[in-house]
Amino acid sequence: MKERILVTGGTGYIGSHTVVELQNSGYDVVIVDNLSNSSADVVDNIEKVSGIRPAFEKLDCLDLEGMDKLFTKYPGIKGIIHFAASKAVGESVQKPLLYYRNNLVSLINLLELMPKHGVEGIIFSSSCTVYGQPDVLPVTEEAPIKKAESPYGNTKQINEEIIRDTVASGSPINAIMLRYFNPIGAHPTALIGELPNGVPQNLLPYVTQTAMGIREKLSVFGDDYDTPDGSCIRDYIYVVDLAKAHVIAMDRILNNKQKEKDMIQILKGMKDRFSDDVKKYDYIIDSAKNVFSKYGFEKIITPVVEATELFERGVGEETDVVSKEMYTFLDKGDRSITLRPEGTAGIVRAYLQSGLHKSDPVVKWFYFGPMYRYEAPQKGRYREFHQVGTETFGIRNPLIDAEIIKMGCEFLEKTGIENLIVEINSLGNTESRKRYTDDLRKFIESKLDKLCHNCKTRYTKNPLRVLDCKSESCQEQYKDAPLLIDYLDEESKKYYEETKAYLDKLNVNYVENHRLVRGLDYYSDTVFEIKSENLGAQSTVLAGGRYDKLLTILGDVDVPGIGFAAGMERIALLLDENNIKKESKAVYVTYFEETKDYALEVISKLRESDIKVAFEYETKSFKAQMKKAGKLDSKYVIIIGEEERQEKKLVLKNFETGNQEKLDIDKVIERVNEDV
């Protein structure tokens, strides 16, 4: 069975045929249709044709909440074919607002929900109406888009623009837009075809209904076309061929084949970062260095690739990270190696391998760099992502736990992130968790038939992690589950209470969340998450906890540890660009052909004085050079004419005030450095 596909308007004419062809190609299909122009009986006929009954939900795509729940009900939808729309040209002229609401909002809802639910691509059913009255026939993709001649046609044009802008914004989705017109015919079985509700808006069903006597007559308009007999010649496309084209388009999206010519494209889930993105990342790293160094942390750099066993033992074989999400492969020496999915395990390995636990067990390190997880891309989450984090070894004391949480808050506040929420919990020690796990498993056992597949798996392997499930229906089942806090022994309770007391002394506002367990197996005692109200549902920005047994697991060394990690992509989403220190704009140097040699001498001296310089490599007119300086938003422009060359002077012009003066180069350097 191939991937699961959502077909909106799947009981309609083209939609129903496309569902059949998707099923014939091995796809699992879910249909959404409000039945405004079709019948639910079509689902029965689709089953008769293909032998497979597709899932069907009577639902309007305008219902954002309903569509959100649908994606949750049918997890794993990888692609959407979007047919659902009002489509009658004449009606659109009479009811333009209905068409704009139905056709635009339905698409916007889908595009908003796709990243959230890991949907990879969308096929949009567009129309050749975007070409208007073409200048040349036959129409090709090179034909110009013309002003729409109806609200219906305009919705297709606007929707195409919405899709282009969404993809261009960096949203982790792919899209193909199919433009066509005049589909006709029916499936060879005659079980599905074109049977609209009410009066047909297309020619062929009107013709057939007239022939059957359902319609009184058929009126033909026009007898002066540029044809031998003056009648209109129309081209048609067989609906089954059109349906197969949609399947091919979906194949191309899911197999990442929709490339322009032979251009090699970035891998799905990865992202190029430049310009403003890089400035944000640099700002985050600088903020981290500034805060962490005050707490006595030093930077560590570890390899991106580690032995797979490190993560299997350290992170836990039963975690989603290890079982589903790691990039693991054999190297040329037939060794299993993995691109690191998180930072802690590798840093623990470095600590143990260096023997620091023998000589100087107390170590404070911070790190930043790329991590890799093969999971569904969404806003602020990519398959290659970046983390900044800290690890502390050799200290088990509630004060360090509180201080680490305080430092995490200070770091985020340093970047300018506001409205922070600190959530804490205690997982207790091994004995406490064992007693709790036994009772939790008994509780879950009575709920198994109502739980998702992941929770059923976790029930047998690691029941504690069911509490971390993101399914709303599962969380509803767990609302009366026992709480780990009630199972803590005296030592764990004392440690937790002292940690909270230190947080109070350090003026850290926090809330207790006794269902907070974190996603990795190595945590014990203190766990915490720092969230931002400004990030929506996926609100966690920084998270971590204590892992006193991890070093025992990896190196049979009894050394405690605690740390946290923060996703740089998440932080970048929250950054106010006004808070980021603006880079000084380059001084722009203008010159003429006869003064080029002197200009190069000046440029070298400016750069030796750490002044950023921009200039044109090819001599251009003075007007063109000044225009370029304005585009670069340069505060200062240096003008080098023949007189300046002979006098060994420079004209320094302030672009903001318009003032200019002739100065020695040393004075220019002094003036610019004072300002920049």
Would you give an account of this structure?
It is built from 24 helices and 24 strands. With 676 residues, the protein is an alpha/beta fold. It has three domains: 199 residues, NAD(P)-binding Rossmann-like Domain (Rossmann fold, 3-Layer(aba) Sandwich), CATH 3.40.50.720; 243 residues, BirA Bifunctional Protein, domain 2 (2-Layer Sandwich), CATH 3.30.930.10; 89 residues, Anticodon-binding domain (Rossmann fold). Strands 9-13-14-19-18-17-15-16 form an eight-stranded mixed β-sheet. Helix 3 packs parallel to helix 5. It starts with a strand and ends with a helix. The model has no long low-confidence stretch (mean pLDDT 87).
Low-confidence stretches: none
Strand order of the largest sheet: 9-13-14-19-18-17-15-16
The N- to C-terminal Cα distance equals 62 Å
DSSP E strands, number: 24
Percent range for β-strand residues? 15-25%
Q: Mean pLDDT, rounded to whole units?
A: 87
